[in-house]
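Lab meeting prep.
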Amino acid sequence: MPVSSLFAVLLVLLGAAPALAETHEVKMLNRGATGAMVYEPDYLAIAPGDKVKFIATHSTHNAASIPGFLPAAAEPFKGRIDEELEVSFSEPGLYGIQCIPHLAMGMVMLIQVGAQPASEAQIPAQLPARARQRFEQIVQRATQIP
């Protein structure tokens, strides 16, 4: 095969890589399977490059990264209240996500990007008690997933 043909094949394969990324949907709910003020699902294990679409189902919710609970090289994000938000997660690691108005009520979720296990989550001590408790429950469930 001529070099130019190999180069063309390589370009096609590299160009197809972003198309392999998945988009995962997370609903922001007043009430869900695990209680009140929840993300559903509240735990995702995704690949680097995948996207998460946060879907507002009520006018008081948002999705935002938790300062100090995301990989060092990751960009923080903060969605507006009652607004759908799509975030691309390219940096491997563990991301704590909050609904800012309902953090004290424990409206949080955990996103695992890549191979770092959820059991290594370092839940920030300054979080409200209900948020810390929910994160502990999420981590416990995540470690039981085969």
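Slide two material, second protein:
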Amino acid sequence: MDPSDVADLIREALPDARVRVRRARGKHDDDHLAALVVSPAFEGETLVDQHELVYDALESHMTTDIHALELKTYAPDAFEDADVAFEEA
């Protein structure tokens, strides 16, 4: 699955999110992706609940098109405190 399609699905479910999705293992490994998602929807949620919001956005793609997803999620305030670069895709 194309990383931009994955990012679009996440943005559709979490409209205020900043999203970056890339291939995790190189350009030719289509089913291993890495995503960084920063969303106000994550405020007050546990890390598990944040990840579930993203997985819910991807629905059946997680079992058909995406083999693995390295996922980092942050509420906006937590992201400001993290030392993570963000380049939106």
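Talking points for slide two:
The chain has a mean pLDDT of 89.
The chain has four helices and three strands.
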